[in-house]
Amino acid sequence: MKTAQDIIIKPIITENSMMAQQFKKYTFKVAKNTNKIEIAKAVEELFGVKVAKVNTVSVKGRFKRMGRSEGYKPDWKKAIVTLTEDSKTIEFFEGMM
């Protein structure tokens, strides 16, 4: 059984994700083998909010080179979580805008 901490790995803090917060959309890096229902339940459990919908994106790892050695960063999954209108904001992101 996966816990909510296993599903939600870390928040993604970029310029675009910060601007999406005014529309109650929050972006997280999540475990690759989770589905939208598990992500919604984990966000509701961790932050005490109501989730309206979840969009997921599978991100391909970038090509990296260090001197002569080269390879790819690992693939990962991104979830964009939209909260309901009557739901409160997530306090974790409050001071970042």
Automatic annotation (TrEMBL):
GO terms for molecular function: rRNA binding; structural constituent of ribosome. One of its GO terms (biological process) is translation. InterPro entries: Nucleotide-bd_a/b_plait_sf, Ribosomal_uL23-like, Ribosomal_uL23/eL15/eS24_sf, Ribosomal_uL23_CS. GO terms for cellular component: ribonucleoprotein complex; ribosome. Keywords: Ribonucleoprotein, Ribosomal protein, RNA-binding, rRNA-binding. Signal peptide: none annotated. Belongs to the universal ribosomal protein uL23 family. Part of the 50S ribosomal subunit. Contacts protein L29, and trigger factor when it is bound to the ribosome. One of the early assembly proteins it binds 23S rRNA. One of the proteins that surrounds the polypeptide exit tunnel on the outside of the ribosome. Forms the main docking site for trigger factor binding to the ribosome. This is Large ribosomal subunit protein uL23.
